[in-house]
Structure formats: C-alpha cells, structure tokens
Amino acid sequence: MRNKLINRPRRIRLFRFIGRPTFRNLYRILSKPKVEGIDNVPKEGPYLITANHLAFTDPPLVLAFWPKPVEALGAANMMSRHIFGWIMRSYGAYAVQRDSFDRSVVRIALNVLQNGRPLFIAPEGSRSPTGMKPAQPGAAYLAVKASVPIVPVGVMGTEQMFAALRSGYRAPITMRIGKPYQLPDIPPHGKERHKILKNHTNEIMGRIAALLPSEYHGVYAAHI
Questions:
Q1: Which domains does the chain have, with CATH numbers?
Q2: Cα angle 100, 127, 58; round to 5
C-alpha cells in the first residue's frame, strides 16, 4: 500500500506533469485568476489542504496552481461523469461517497499523509455557491489522526466564471492560502469525542471563512 501511494502509476504522473500547466493556462484564458499567500504553503512534509467549494471548477483550480502535485479526495458521483470524471480519474483522485463513512477511503487518506504526502479535501462534500454550508467531520478526523497541519484555502469567484464568459468577459477568481495550523488531539473514546470533533470542524471552516468576503461565510459567519 505504501509503495503504491508514494509511486503513483506512470500515467497519473504524466497526466499531472502535462495537465497542471495546461489547466493553469486554461484558467488564465477563461478567467482572471489570482493566487495569494503562496508563501504559506509548507516546503515539505505532509499536510491537509482544506478549501470551500463553490463550483466544480474549484478543485482543479487548487490542484493546478498549488506549487507541487498533491493527492486529492473527490466525490464519487462526480468521478462517474464523462469529461470531468475522466479528468479526476486521470489525475488520480480518490473517490469518496458523500454523506457516508468509508473506512477504505479513510485508510487510504491516512496512508497518504503518513507517507509524507499533502492531501486536498473539500470538507463541505458538495458545492455551496450561495455560502458555506455545514461540513463533514472527515477533515478534522484525518488531521488529528495523522497529526498533520492544516492549510486553509479560500476560493472566490469560480461560481461566476462561466456566466461571465457568456456575458463576454472574464471573471476575476481568487485562491487565497492561509497560514498552516494544527488541531489539538481528541480523546479516543467518550461522550466528549463527538463534541470536540464538531468543534474542530467548526475551527477548520472558520479558518477558511476568514479568508473570504462576508457573502461567502454562510453558516460559519459566527466561527471567524
């Protein structure tokens, strides 16, 4: 398992080598992208990248403009679709079932982090273009279990990208990277475990919301 995770198949490595710069250029053609806070990205070691999810163009934006290729979790229903699913599979994203606890995916994600690889996840689990919605606890669980820092990312403008093109202009989109932080441990058992995990999830989403304008805060406005 470990060697397989570290040494991804050649076709995936080749797709990332060609696809990441290709997608960067596509975003520059179709929009006006801006990346802020790139100095906050850790130089080495494992970490969890957490971002809000406005549109299906968010994950490719983060993965294309990140300083180096990182592993990613993606919604299984999206990976079964035609072009977008092919892109996700070709990149080597790991499929996650929304609103369910998949032990095999958790094991894969932990192995990725324990092998020193960064991992991208959108804690909301699905798109929320009108403001952040309640997130799943998976990101908090992984960060604590693997004892890795979290790098928050706020994405804005992607939900307007194609509507802007139809109106004849390129929308400004921004990917804002915050400072890494680490969550405290949670007890392995007991009644407080669920409450602490929920508080950790609120912390994760509050850190993302703090990188965004108020209209994106949604249910996490009070957690900034």
A1: 2-219 (3.40.1130.10)
A2: 115
What single string gives the DSSP state of each residue in 151-162?
EEEEEESGGGHH
Per-residue pLDDT of the chain (224 residues; tens, 9 = 90+): 444 445 789 999 999 999 999 999 999 999 999 999 999 999 999 999 999 999 999 999 999 999 999 999 988 777 777 788 899 999 999 988 766 667 888 899 999 999 999 999 999 988 999 899 999 999 999 999 999 999 999 999 999 999 999 999 999 999 999 999 999 988 777 778 888 999 999 999 999 999 999 999 999 999 88
- How far is Cα 62 from Cα 120, in angstroms, rounded to an integer? 9
Rounded to whole angstroms, how far apart are CA atoms 117 and 113? Answer: 5
Q: At what angle do helices 83-91 and 10-30 cross, to 10 degrees?
A: 130
10 Å Cβ neighbour count for 18?
Answer: 11
Distance CA 223, CA 63 (A): 27
214-218's contacts with Cβ under 8 Å and 24+ in sequence apart are: 215/131, 216/52, 216/54, 216/131, 216/132, 216/154, 216/156, 217/131, 217/132, 218/128, 218/130, 218/131, 218/132, 218/133
**Which of 114, 76, 111, 113 minimizes the C-alpha distance to 95?**
76
- pTM value? 0.92
Q: How many residues does the chain have?
A: 224
* CA gap 71, 87 in Å, rounded: 14
CB 99 within 8 A of CB 186: no
